[in-house]
Amino acid sequence: MTYRTHALKALTVIGALVLMAGCGSGSGGSSTGGSGTGGSAGAPVHGGNLVFAAVQDAQSMNATTVFDNNSIWILEQIFQPLYTVTNNGKGEMPWLATGYKVSANKKTYTFTLRPGVKFSNGKLMTSADVKFSLDQNRKATKGWAYLDSAIKSVDDPSPETVVINLKYPWAPILADLSLFANGIVPDNYGGETEAAFYTHPIGTGPFKWDYWHKGSALKLVRNPYYWQPGKPYLNSITWTDVPSDNTRELELKGGQAQIDQTPAWSTVASLKSTPSVRMDLFNSTQTNYLAFNELRKPFQDVHVRRAISLAINRNALVKAVLFGNGKPANSLFPPQVPFYDPSTPGYQFNLAEAKQQMAESSVPHGFSTTLLIAAGNSDYLTIGTILQAELKPLGIKINIQQLDPNTANADFQSLKYDMSLTLWTMDIPDPDELATFAVDPTSGARSFFTAYDNPLVVKDTHLAEKTLNTAKRQQLYNIVQTDAAQDAFMAFLYYSPYPYATTSNVHGFYVTPLGNMHMENVWLSK
Q: Which among 505, 518, 429, 478 has a CA at the least distance from the CA of 47?
């Protein structure tokens, strides 16, 4: 076969990107992304135990089946893939691989592994580990196997070489390989069962397992065998389960936590001027949605879904919930994602048209329903209260059901709800992940846990994945975005940045538009 070599990024460029995540933009104030916190403090120092106050506990440490962001962002500190996402969230760069060659027919990729990479138990990583890891994700019956569906086989001809054979040319192959679920685990789980392994997972990431007290705290400690010399800087990171916005803020100000995940938007302005606190707004791919469960009446009715979408004043939501820090959503895709179409006709506020859609529906006089939200989330409660008022003219009565965030998440994923507020953050720099997750009911997520099923949308989505021509992919994804918007299977609410508050002694903390956090670059000044 004839091969074309891809170094993609020279090692010096990789080093520059890694260091970029550790650079800062100053010791106070706020940023809009592109730099880490506290860059004026001087050279990084080792030591320190960081507490990360999270909005909910992790749900699972099994990377092949987990769906919630909190679990994913922790898993990314333990497991690493062959490629990772660039800091701008729009590309990939070599990580556990240093480069690849691709065959002339675009169906065979040969990857060279980074030499000397070890797992946190000191064992050298080889191609056998890579083959096992990719094969395991491909076999998962619930989860992310759909992203590896184009892979025909994985071979390990030598310890430092991995060959991936595709069924057909596949445009997002590198992006898919950068997914957390394709992170590398030891071959045969190191001799353990899958269930036993994930009670104390082992990876090549900067941190290794310590403990998980479910519903309370999960702790990782420094991996002494990490392949980037001198990193990580921290001795440990502990993620605590703190669903209350107020409690997280008090812990941050009191020094019990060093990072407050997603402080309430109502507090962003005051946190910007709080001494010893830094408030960052990072560029994001986050989109907030109102999900409809099409297994429950009357949400199978497209007119009902359209009516609700049309009755929502998104500009008012941005003002009331985000305090102006965002913009109304028009598409399933966020603007930071390649192939986003700004002209997608996502429904916007039009009460007269909303009433007309209700008149054409199966419930023209309205109905009662329940909105599921996570308890302690003041922003979601605000949205729920606004929705109660906005849908009342349609004869729709909303009862707000507040559940513990972990329970609410489980009920949402089990389709035990009528309507629910949810959000999406990209994990790879390609719409392949979101499109299939959201519109294909066989993907493992049952169309974003809505049971939505439009065969034409599914067909166009998968055709786009197999199309290598960029212009043709754009045309297909434009159709997908338009058709999904007209079906109103979810109400697209708004796009917003990632708000994170940190204490002023936290440095090098940076969140990519995909939500990735390279915590190996974070350090605490004395």
A: 505
Give the angle 394-395-397 at the CA atoms, nearest 5°.
115
pLDDT at residue 28 is higher than 70: no
- Residue 366 structural domain: 284-497
Q: What is the token pair recorded at 147?
A: 């992203």
CA–CA gap between residue 197 and residue 137 (Å, rounded): 15
Domain harbouring 324, CATH code = 3.10.105.10
Tens of pLDDT, residues 375-406: 988 889 999 999 999 999 999 999 999 999 88
Q: What is the pLDDT of residue 22?
A: 34
For the chain, the 3-state helix, strand and coil shares in percent, each to the nearest 5, are 35, 25, 40
Mean predicted confidence (pLDDT) in 215-238: 98
Dist CA 209 CA 190 (whole Å): 15
CA distance 332 to 342: 11
Does residue 480 belong to any structural domain of this protein? yes
Q: How far apart are the first and last CA of the chain?
A: 57
Contact call for residues 139 and 45 (beta carbons, < 8 A): no
| pLDDT tens, residue by residue, 324-350 | 999 999 999 999 999 999 999 999 999
Give CA 182 to chain center in angstroms.
Answer: 14
